[in-house]
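Appendix C reproduces, verbatim, an entry submitted by the partner laboratory led by Prof. M.T., so that reviewers can inspect both the input and the predicted structure.
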Amino acid sequence: MHLKKTKRGERIYLSVVQNYREGGKTKTKTIESIGYVDQFTSQYADPIAHFQAYVAELNERAKSENPPIAFTFPRDATIDDTHIAQARWGSAIALAYLDALGVRRFFENRAGHVGFPAHAGRIFEMLASERMIHVAPKRETWQRRASFPRTCDFTLADTYAAFQCFARNERALVAHLSKTYQAIRGPYQVNSVLLVLASFTLADTGDVNATNARLAGGIDRDEGLSMGIGMLLDRTGIPMTYHVTSASPSADEVSGLVASAKSNFGAKRVIVVAGRTPHAREIAETLAESGDGFVFFRPLETAAFDLQAWVADASDYITTQSGSYKVKSRTDEMAGIRVKDTVLWGRDYAKIARKQGRAEDEARDLALDGYICISSSETKLTAGTLFHIYRELWRLTEPFQLLESDFSPSPYPVAHAIHMRAHFLVCYAAFFALRLLRSDMGWSRNAAQVADALLRMEGSHLAENWFLFSYRSPVTDEIEQAAGVDVARRLRTAADIKRDIAKARKHIERQEG
């Protein structure tokens, strides 16, 4: 608030007013009408100085007393299309975690350097915070930029142009995230680490946009539209690094990743987690030689008959009280290595499999629908622990999903290899931040629950620069407590949100690992 002095003829009229931003413009609201200066000359030696002190007192009182806010709306009030419809409080939490991991500092320290576009950092923040909350096309993310907690005054062309910068600085940012995490939370726990392998394929649609993208420098389908990643997680499940791999890494490639984990991070033992891989046997043999382990998916449709029969045999299963799951294990041998086969049946898995339907050998497939089988060198671990480890693969692939619409960005084509590397880097930062948040919540909620809560934490524009928030759940309470910000506050301004991002970042950095 401030004292406004309005000249009316030969007289000066005083009022208490407050400025606010609305529709991209600065507007003024009258809080209190005081009167003409000459009306107060008999009471005060300097009326203007007196009322300036009065306004200063009002401002101090507003800070300390949290006074109520009043809004009035005409009955026929309409929605102004220049207003920002939503304010995303969930995105602010995501930004605080990305800031704590040093993303903003990484780009600010390089602003103006060759190869760093002016908006590169803000573009990365926007894409990573959105990916942390849900999987959405990059164009859609850009279209929602007005409700992002920080100003995003860049074009869609700027967004795609920044991918070259992201891809070129991939390793530098990954190393920076790791270094920053250890600075605020202490060293990684590396007695036993997980190396999770996942592959991603971009289908060639054969449409004009895809063809144009390839002609503009993209990688041909047969040469590189499929890629994989090897994600390294410490014993607590916190990301350490990742590497882009071939879609089906060989035993030698996996061996190199394992050696890198040991030499760069001091890992004592590495357990490789993988889904379908044509090189499972060779990888298992290589890991056994180096004293490392594995948890591999075993496709039942191509498995030996004895394994199929064992899975289909109803005996020895342990069933949950609800009957939704059942599990059993056995020890076996694979490539001369003693392994533990563990099979899990889930009612939901069976429904999905039967809904999808399979064309080949339907009778056998129906008998095996709903079953997931994994083989592991870790024979002393329980079935529940092994499936918990294997779930890391599912948790990893979710935020890294590829959307075909992102890879046909006409008229802003980006080479596929560059796009995928930039995509993986954005997803990794989002994955890292979400993992850190879940860790601060004591791993009490799964990734889907946390992401859904962040998505729902949106406020609707009320009036002036105020937004009204109406969603609260036990999950949002835990999120806000982890981030160290006000729980369940109904009213916030854009300035409040920006201040709370900084407050949350400081709280996150101070937490003990």
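The longest strand covers residues 11-22. Additional entries are available on request from the coordinating office.
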